[in-house]
Amino acid sequence: MGRNHQPDQSTFRAVFPEDIEWKPFPAFPSGARLAVMVGHPSEAGPYVVRVKVPGGTRLMPHKHPEDRIYTVMSGVFYIGLGETFDGDKVTAYPPGSVIVLPGETWHFHWAKSGEYVTQVSAIGPLGLEYHDAHDDPRVQAAEARRA
What is the DSSP string of 24-40? Predict the structure, then answer.
């Protein structure tokens, strides 16, 4: 009996650093980038993405419906828990750290000491809801188009 594989995961392949395609993501602040490494985040099933955030950038309080596992690839990843951004309540995670974030957990990120790259593993579909809609770059873009 054959094994059922996820889409695009039935044959051996590798992704080299020079082949990573960093793209803007509508739910991220300007300058932040997302790269899909494995899977299809907008669909049901496992996926792996990388997130690159430039120094000084804040991702305001938000949550994801899916459980996530973050691996810090480079830089220092600062994350805090709660519905309100509080720079005094972030914890610094150096490269190699692994953070388990249960779905529906309000949290925020800050590239406090410079650019960081994290790798996120989860079961899709990927979701992202900001606590305050005015912090959502998708809402900001829609308001700018109406203006």
Answer: --TTSPTT-EEEEEES-
